[in-house]
């Protein structure tokens, strides 16, 4: 018998990508149920030559499903993920709600696939920035033991949803035609501007996104004392996040050793051609499942430091693709 899979948040950016990935996966799927908010009920999405209807969530929606991928936000996951679990499905959740709960594995398959063995019906997908970063850090950590990470992010507007994409498009048009620009989704103008990530700043001085990156990397790596400092910034890019990373390792690595390690790492594509100025960019990363890493060089300010730059599609490796990888690893 084939797999019976549900997707919650099927009309959102991540849900749409998950449907495409499942269609490409060649998994033996006998049933795909799509769920979204009431305003999307009645719409249809194509899958393997069929037009599948969008249904509204209910307490009986998950009966008979083997897996459910949630991509509809924390409040929906909080309410309905336990119901899906009790219905017999394994939940793969893209929201932040379960990520730091001690009994819920937080999984990036290239890093800690073995943690799936301990799941109790719910598996958390990491924050998109943390997921992308972990793929590049882990292979280096295995060889040289990372002692400190400093990361600054350049995060695309699509990480804030469809309305944020529309806001950037609108502001660009208004700028060209000399019309007033009035921010609505973001606290400041995003067109031709950069600003601190729009999540609230907490008591420790870090905003919510920065705290997620630091806490989740520690959990994924089983490294609670990892020294990590994150600065998360919104930039006027439609899709794919980028990150500037500096690490300090216990064992010294030079740039060539680091490049060699990353070139053999799963989920990493080294894009590093200094002679031709060819390095990772959000445009190059958009639509790719791999994390692009380049600008690999020694940190001249530290005897065991390495610096590099990466770009990754946060809708794919940062969300939908990571979730589908988890599903595949469970089979």
UniProtKB/TrEMBL annotation:
| Active-site residues, Swiss-Prot/TrEMBL | 128 (acyl-thioester intermediate), 241 (proton acceptor)
Give the main EC class: oxidoreductase
Q: Which GO terms describe its biological process?
A: 'de novo' L-methionine biosynthetic process; diaminopimelate biosynthetic process; isoleucine biosynthetic process; lysine biosynthetic process via diaminopimelate; threonine biosynthetic process
EC assignment: 1.2.1.11
State a single Gene Ontology molecular function.
NAD binding
CDD domains linked to this entry: ASADH_C_bac_euk_like, VcASADH2_like_N
Q: Which SMART domains match?
A: Semialdhyde_dh (SM00859)
What the record says about family reads: Belongs to the aspartate-semialdehyde dehydrogenase family.
Q: Which HAMAP family match?
A: ASADH
Name of the protein in its database record? Aspartate-semialdehyde dehydrogenase
Organism equals Methylacidiphilum kamchatkense Kam1
Lineage summary: Bacteria, Pseudomonadati, Verrucomicrobiota, Methylacidiphilae, Methylacidiphilales
Point out the gene that encodes the protein. Answer: asd
